[in-house]
Amino acid sequence: MIRRSLFGHTQTLRSISLISPSRTSSIIPSSSRQPISPLLPSRIISQRYYSATSEAASTHASNGQPTASESTEEEDPTKKELEAKGREIIDLKDRYLRSVADFRNLQDRTKREIQSARDFAISKFASDLMESVDNLDRALTTVPSSKLAPQNSDPDTPPEDNQYNKDLANLYDGLKMTETILMGTLKKHGLERFDPSEGEGQMFNPNLHEATFQTKVEGKENGQVFMTQQKGFTLNGRVIRAAKVGVVKNS
Which of 126, 168, 187, 222 is the most exposed place for a label (fewest CB within 10 A)? Predict the structure, then answer.
């Protein structure tokens, strides 16, 4: 029986090999015929590999998980640390420059305050001393000039007609010398006295003068000082007492 079955199979294979190509094509439908290639298995494997990779990437993207390249860029600690250090350096530099500017302003302000304290340290003392200087000046101005020098040297002139008083003149000279020395000492320390009516008279200056009255005076301009009631004082260029004056007003 085995021999019969083997013989039957052999006959069947012979009959198939004897069939012509045309008849074979007619037996097999055209739609099912495909070219047979020896590289077909490798192509199928490579397609399946790449498709699996793309499917995994799409799966990660759909799940919101970054890919390997994106995670490397986002999670680079060195780059983040460098950026943080750069911002910190810029902030520290800005703070340093501001501190230096504040310190220099403080130095300049301190110098000005020290100089101002030196210049005007005696302002209260000068204010108290001005009254004494005013009294000394009033004492000198009350002595008439006729009693300071002999008007007539004729020995036959009766003494009652001669108003010269030698003792008074000597006293006046002594007071005048005292005033000169005192004003020179005060000037060394920055305290100076000024009289706006000396000479031809100054024009009224509200920063230096205090007008007490106005009147018409012929031969002088409007706004000109023609009389000083009280002299003024300055301390290192700053007015500590304005001069009280009378001002011309012709119109």
Answer: 187
